[in-house]
Amino acid sequence: MRKLPAKLASQLYGAAELIAERGLDGTKIEDIAEATGIPKATIYYHLDGKNAVLEFLLGDLLDMIAGAVGVAVTSEENARTRLEAAVLAQLGVMLEHPSLCRALVGDLGRATRLPELAAALRTAFYEPIEQLLADGVSDGSLRQVADPAAVALSVFGAITVAGLSAAVEGPSADPSADAARFSAAITELVLDGLATPGSRDQRRGDPL
Amino acid sequence: MRKLPAKLASQLYGAAELIAERGLDGTKIEDIAEATGIPKATIYYHLDGKNAVLEFLLGDLLDMIAGAVGVAVTSEENARTRLEAAVLAQLGVMLEHPSLCRALVGDLGRATRLPELAAALRTAFYEPIEQLLADGVSDGSLRQVADPAAVALSVFGAITVAGLSAAVEGPSADPSADAARFSAAITELVLDGLATPGSRDQRRGDPL
DNA sequence: CTTGGTTTGTACTGTGAGTACAACATACGA
DNA sequence: TCGTATGTTGTACTCACAGTACAAACCAAG
């Protein structure tokens, strides 16, 4: 069941739009069969049901994200620069595949209840950020924060929500331009913060 | 159907944990009936089906958040301070009601497909942030950014993902302490950013 | 005690997921 | 050429569960 023939796999993508639009519940297996051209019996021959269809599609998306981010993270630059690259990479993939992202948002609950997917989600989205933040403290390119885990989570949220919501807004004419725009905004926020220069540091006394 | 008797409303909360755990799909109406003590026929007398149960529960959560944040935002302080208060308020409510939050994550797709809830989601989470960011620029307590909409979205994501994921981790012994902890981390990130003092501003030339 | 809204049990209908299976195709080695 | 294994597909099921119908009971308030 794991190695679905390539032809079928590509046909299955025809169901992504459908699932994104109506949610997995609102989508009948018969609809998927019709949209992809794969007869219901064949779907059941290879896959363990509706959930498996979603699992296959999202697994692929998550692999793409993890891959792109992985490349971005593996450079010789300092952590701050790699963080910027990772943000751009993640948003790039997400905006390239809006209907997969919409399907992901729509069936997040189901996704997190599918153990493999939950792990892939973590690997694709959260862990690279967490790692970069730690690296940045080591190489001095990012600040030490009081609660690294919580901050990593928030950074992850900032990126992911921006990407998902851009995907939900509907496909854009120029995904990579959008990715660059969002990426710049997030980077600006995450690196420099929103406080005005004058008011900065009037809160905490200790710089480290 | 809108004004469900108070007694039933309170009984209905007994279903939140169930729905959070198994998702709405994995929860039979009969299960809800059993968990709440409200017979199936009575549920259908008042509510339009399973979705309406979820809609009722989440509507309430969203109202609480919108309310708490609304209070936090309506003070005489400057926008930066009010932003801190809003973050704390939002996280406070979320951590106070972890199973509602889990239900929200789990059935986010359904929630966004229910028009009333989608609007309530926006009102509760996103709009207050957007407003505060704009206010901060006016009163000088927050920096002007290049793409305010994208930044507002990211801030919203940072807060919300932190809250949701804390809720998903399971209920905590001391919700308000957790809220304070997360709130501090997010505030630190969002206001001061992660760049080290030395490297700050070596990217963009124009301060405005 | 009657009228009108609620409450609830019971029995039903309809839909769609998933299964069973037989017929057929295709490949590949003997 | 045949035989066997592996995939493909149509058809016809089963079964669980959402939602509906309805009648009997209940409980005000006039």
TrEMBL record, chains A, B:
It holds the Pfam family TetR_N. One of its GO terms (molecular function) is transcription cis-regulatory region binding. Residues 28-47 bind DNA. Residues 5-65 form the HTH tetR-type domain. Keywords: DNA-binding, Transcription, Transcription regulation. The keyword Thylakoid does not apply. InterPro entries: Homeodomain-like_sf, HTH-type_TetR-like_transc_reg, HTH_TetR, KstR2_TetR_C, Tet_transcr_reg_TetR-rel_C_sf. Coiled coil: none annotated. This is HTH tetR-type domain-containing protein. It comes from Aeromicrobium flavum.
